[in-house]
Amino acid sequence: MLEVDSRAVPEPAPPDPQEGLSIAEAARRTGVSVHTLRYYERAGLVVTPVGRTAGGRRRYRLLDLKWIVICTKMRATGMPIKAIRRYAQLVAAGAGNEQERLALLEAHRAEVAAKLAEVQENLRLIDHKIDVYRGRLAAGDADRLWAPSRPAGAH
Amino acid sequence: MLEVDSRAVPEPAPPDPQEGLSIAEAARRTGVSVHTLRYYERAGLVVTPVGRTAGGRRRYRLLDLKWIVICTKMRATGMPIKAIRRYAQLVAAGAGNEQERLALLEAHRAEVAAKLAEVQENLRLIDHKIDVYRGRLAAGDADRLWAPSRPAGAH
DNA sequence: AATCGACTTCGAGCATGCTCGAAATCCTAG
DNA sequence: CTAGGATTTCGAGCATGCTCGAAGTCGATT
């Protein structure tokens, strides 16, 4: 997963320049790489199209930066790009679909809750295995652990 | 992640045939696809090399099946293929390196614990966002949620 | 012997989310 | 005007863990 510098994320800081920031500045202020900024745009995560200069360079406004930060937060919860895109589309569609947005969030919440249960179970499993090892080692019983030539009780 | 039919995994069941099972049978009894069985072998997850017939077909013995089941259990905990390979190598090296195996397991445990903390945090974040939405909707305040044309307080 | 399904190896493809490189363009300083 | 850094787009590459397809082989049955 993309690691976003948490110290850079929360507040995009006001865009001083009159007509928006360069992509490099936007990257610096959001904690997202320029590559990823472009990727997010291509992937359709952007609500309001980022403006361009006459020469075709992106100009990020405060609004854009804020939205990107929201995206990074959603990504940080493991929300897949596709889901964020759907969410962005809903937001872009304007007011009136808040229930749908909420449903999207709740669906993601369910995924995360399921993941949580899974990881908890994993931890339980691995702990069990470690316990077996510790027990055997403490008992000087290590030779009862699995060996290629002699299948034994423990793994 | 590979989904292993949990009803098929636990006990490989005795290998009736005199000289081991075909890969199809092994797949059926371990709940792993034939493709994946071959992949695991290529990936070096196997402790004892799976035997071959004169014609080059794999013959799985009970020992092999048991080890594969162990591999599936480790995979089920999210242990990466590389780590399982290292573990298999240690086991293949025979007795005497149990401390190293334990260290490997503990390292993985740490990963899983970290993952757990992360997912818990994610759940917290998404719950917070959902709360905001619920609150706005209940208060008939939905228009204070984010809209492309008018950056607002909530997302 | 011929057939036909199961099996072999090797390499490619898929999904995800970036990450990077190439070639061309922009723009700003000197 | 020119150099050189920043940006652009497009497409490829990377890591992971399978999953699949092609082309050829094995082997049991008829």
TrEMBL record, chains A, B:
Keywords: DNA-binding. GO terms for molecular function: DNA binding; DNA-binding transcription factor activity. InterPro entries: DNA-bd_dom_put_sf (IPR009061), MerR-type_HTH_dom (IPR000551), MerR_fam (IPR047057). It comes from the Bacteria. The keyword Secreted does not apply. Residues 20-90 form the HTH merR-type domain. Pfam families: MerR_1 (PF13411). The keyword Repeat does not apply. Residues 1-20 are annotated as: Disordered. SUPFAM superfamilies: Putative DNA-binding domain. PANTHER family: HTH-TYPE TRANSCRIPTIONAL REGULATOR ADHR, REDOX-CYCLING DRUG-SENSING TRANSCRIPTIONAL ACTIVATOR SOXR. This is MerR family transcriptional regulator. It comes from Microbispora catharanthi.
